[in-house]
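Quick one - inputs below.
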Amino acid sequence: MKRELPIAVAFVVGVLMIVSFFFTSKPLSNAAEIVQDWGVIVSAFALGLASVNLIQIHAKKIARGKGLDWLYSGSLIVSMIGMALLGIIKGPTHKTYQFWFDALFVPGQATVYAMTGFFIASAAYRAFRVRNVDAAILLVSAAILMLANVPIGERLWSQLPAVGDWLMDVPNLAGQRGMLIGAGIGGIASGLRVLLGIERSYLGGSSS
Amino acid sequence: MLDRLARMDRRVIYAVVFLSLSIPLIWPIGLGVSVGPETQKLYDIIESLPSGSAVIVSMDTSPGGYGELASGTTALLNHMARKGLRVIGMGFFDTGPSLLETAFGGSEFRNKEYGKDYVNLGYLAGGETAIAAMARDIPGSFPRDYRGNVTSSLPIMEGIKSVRDVALIVTISSGTPGVPEWIRQVGDPMKVPIATVLVAVNVPNMTPYIQAGQLKGMIPSMKGAAGYESLMGVRGLGTAGMDAQSVSHLVILAFVILGNVVHLASKKPGVSKGGVR
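Output:
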């Protein structure tokens, strides 16, 4: 029953959502709306569960006391519980809560994201080599698009933005559309596998 | 010489990229910006909306992506404020509502009345499912706003039940849920126009949606923000950033060319192979 029941629930819910999408029926759409609301509620509970899981994992790391792990894990737990308490007691729009968000969290995460620019520059110098015709096409396309997307490109050659637009609207569009259609078909196949109980990886353990 | 170039310390590259970004920000070159067709379309849509129209701005990004999207978001919100549009803010990323507070505070909405001209409804967990649930019942999905007010009692929500009652939805997007999810659950089935402020790395993925007319307009990253600012006749962070982006792109291209020259030259006998340490 531990495996059969979740598969049966997934089948009933999945079929209900598909049928309500394609057919107009008040009872069906009402049922689908209720299931959607349940989805939102379950997601909210999942957030709480994830927080408990995160605390458990990092509490173990602190207990192990290996290297500097305990310090990083301790910082995570203190800041997580601290911000949660601040949000619950004072409210998420309180200026202290918003201050920590704006002054610590936003610049911290933005810095990590921005650092990829530096790594890309270093990696491009090291690895972006014209070893064959494919690599040459990639390099030329990348160079055109990099320059076409900044004002200096237009200053260098007035037609560069038009060439960049062509690259985006023809070869890129064809590739992207192909991938979208492929992913869509893959999604249908994967959905059918879940509905029919062939794909069971969401239950944990092996996939079939 | 070639050997030294081949073994160039990566910190040299970091320093040159840092200087190429920071110097034009401190001393702008003023290269000027062109306006892309998608940006022009979004500007025209906002211009065509009558004063008092309700629009949804969904902050579907984390602070990492927002650094790139802030200039476009600010320009867009300023335009909406000047047009007298009612902005219903929400987020399907957990950090969305706090970023919305930052965005409203940094735009001309800070001089407008909360609850009447703009509102922050907060975060709804569940990704694509949550978008679908919200679309059919906005006050039901957000019974209270981010500040704890009863949503249905706010003047801005007058006449707003579902997304069919809003004129436009703009997702400030850097991931999932983002543009495809909004189009799947709201844009196509409910016939509500969707537009986006988008990080540059996702722009190529959006071209099929733009070409098919499913995405009505777009502010692509800082370039789009600079274009939007020029349409509004202002010089903001987007315009300032384009000089830095121009120089940094040239610098990265120069490094790529240099790397290839060194690579080809080091193939010759007698020159040692190298790499970046």
